[in-house]
Amino acid sequence: MMNTLTNTINWSEKYRPITLDDICNQDNIINSLKNILITKNLPHLIFYGPSGIGKTSTILTLAKYIFGDDYINHIAEFNASEDRGINIIRDKIKLYAKQSININKNFPPWKIIILDDADTLTQDAQYALRRIIEQYSNITRFCIIFNNINKIIGPIFSRFAVYRFKPINNTNIYNRLKYIIDKEQITVSETLLNKIISISDNDLRKAINLLQNYNSNIDFLSGYYPDINILFTYILNKDTNNIHTFINNFFNDGYSLSLQIKLFFDYILNMDLECNIKGQILNIIIEVDQSLNKGCDEYINFMKIIYFMLIVIP
């Protein structure tokens, strides 16, 4: 396979969808948006769902339909994760939202603000955003994009058409990667392709990035530990000395436990264990995943999983 590391063009941008029909696995949403285009009355939009499934691509493609080649002059993109406080709302978004627009009979009398990672905004910032939406709706449409719906305040939803984007299935990811492989005229084995799909966890953008940056160690690039199966062998053999060595090497090599949770799940599900034991271990892994999301110590939580398995596995 050719070395793509020197390729300066990001493939996830190079192969970003051009038309609404290019958006993968979101047929109901695309059909709804096409109906909106017919009416030419765009509401405020909420797009939510996992990362890398086409939320930002959809609104950009929609803007191209509405404004044509001049779409870039009718939209403004902001990322809330860069400044999750109220300043981004007052100093940046409000400033753009209240700007008047040049009346053009060929275009609607409003512009679009795209706010990504909105679930990182504080509650105060969200309430300030709500007031701006109410105040400037006549000249500005908002598209708010996020992953976690539970972190958005209720009053915002009443002003938006809400669309939930579902994960992209493996078949669609496979087909998109094969399309890119053909276009780039590279050779990728089916084994590697399936590996990329597996560790991308339904995130098409991640899968494309892994494909572009492929080298002989795809696990290292993705952050997945390549020899995690060895750990389970040590656990089954109650080999505590090698377990401690494994954990120390794991963290010394810079790996993160958070990225291994899916591997743990898959491995436990395929182990030859009684169902009740599997269930207990999976519950512990879920607890650990929740703890890690709250910023708890990875080493302690790794040990929690391992020692629980040492206790319950005969």
Automatic annotation (TrEMBL):
Keywords assigned: ATP-binding, DNA replication, Nucleotide-binding
Presence of keyword Nucleotide-binding: yes
SMART domains recorded: AAA (SM00382)
GO molecular function list: ATP binding; DNA binding; DNA clamp loader activity
Domain AAA+ ATPase: 41-167
Gene Ontology CC annotations of this record: DNA replication factor C complex; nucleus
InterPro entries: AAA+_ATPase, DNA_pol3_clamp-load_cplx_C, DNA_Rep/Repair_Clamp_Loader, P-loop_NTPase, Rep_factorC_C, RFC_lid
Keyword Acetylation: no
Pfam families on file: DNA_pol3_delta2, RCF1-5-like_lid, Rep_fac_C
GO biological process, one term: DNA repair
Protein name, per record: AAA+ ATPase domain-containing protein
Organism: viral metagenome
